[in-house]
Amino acid sequence: MSYKIATIKGIPIYVHITFLLVFLLFAFIFAISGWPFGFRSVEPPIAGYILACLTALLFFVTLLIHELAHSLLAKSYGAKIQSITLFFFGGISAIENPENEKNMDPSKELNIALAGPLSNMIIGIVLLAFNYFAYGSIFGVPDVANWVTEGLTTFTANIPTMIFLLGSLNLLLGLFNILPIYPMDGGRVLRAWLAKRHSYEEATNTAVSIGKGFSVVLAIIGIFTNWWLAILALFLYISASEEGKMFKATTILEDIDVKDVMTTDVLTVDESMSLNDFINFVFQKKHPGYPVTKNGIVVGMVTVDDARHVNETERYAFTIKDIMKEIVSVHPDATALEAFNEMGAHAIGRLVVLDDEKMVGIISRTDLMTTIYLKDNFKNKSKTKTESETEY
């Protein structure tokens, strides 16, 4: 579950619910850690907690800058940026390649992948350099009590500690992100480098495999040193696996047209149908969603979820027209990948297929998942058969 908090340069910024959990965790760690990694010795304690929360907030602002660096550079290359989402352990920039490019040029992808870690390293160096030149040390001022006795406020006295924390965390973030663990930036750098020498598919598969290997190594190190590192490694391993599956899915779907997988025998419901009749209809036909028609023309879409929001005792007074949603459609010549992206963008499970405003079919997420499953399995069987024939 994500919530929109802002729009920057035309890019919607979202915060996932898991982000709030990790924000509180970071603030707590800063509050209980001693100098120079936290504010445990700050008096009164409430001031330490406020400083910890402010430091955590500013750190996540730098995470947003990291994602903006990726997104704005990609945008300058002609890519479309759907959104940026901050979530547990980082952020994601939803970047779509230009329509005329099947895959991003490896050199451009390399630059985009490096932009994020580079922004963190620059922030880190600038902040630590400021501490050094302003306070005589990258750690700031070690004796906070002296500053207080000289009449400075507790907040002002701890600004150097805040700057040190933000600077060092950004340097660590930049360095960690360039590890060759896909889908982190370092893994994308590796894929871009491999894509210059091999096919994009081979480069992605290799980057995913290497990323999994590094994740296992990190997990083993984490078990003996720091459990947080082990948990992060597990998260990265799962992410690499999911990215590999997603790439396989998009590779399959971009080579298939909607017209080849859509359902042409489409059941529809009239907008005048009562809600009670619609629920009975759903039980009979066993489909969760239907195009809505008026005089034979498609005017909307209705699903079981739409009906569920109406109180059972009031359903007799409603018709489908009262609860239906606007049509989200796709052309039969569009790729299955375009249909998949359209479903994701509108958070829906099916699209009406329109040709010159005439409905020619419907395509659902289930249709796409079945297509991916079948294509992938037949492809693997074909490979196995070819390898067996080669052995003989």
UniProtKB/TrEMBL annotation:
Protein name: Zinc metalloprotease
Alphabetized CDD domains for the sequence: CBS_pair_peptidase_M50 (cd04801)
Subcellular location: Cell membrane
One of the record's GO cellular component terms: plasma membrane
Gene designation per UniProt: rip3
Keyword line: Amino-acid biosynthesis, CBS domain, Cell membrane, Hydrolase, Membrane, Metal-binding, Metalloprotease, Methionine biosynthesis, Protease, Repeat, Transmembrane, Transmembrane helix, Zinc
Record-annotated CBS domain positions: 262-318, 323-382
Primary localisation category: membrane
Keyword Transcription regulation among record annotations: no
Cofactors that this protein relies on: Zn(2+)
Species for this entry: Methanimicrococcus stummii
Regions crossing the membrane: 12-34, 46-65, 115-141, 162-182, 214-238
Signal sequence region: none
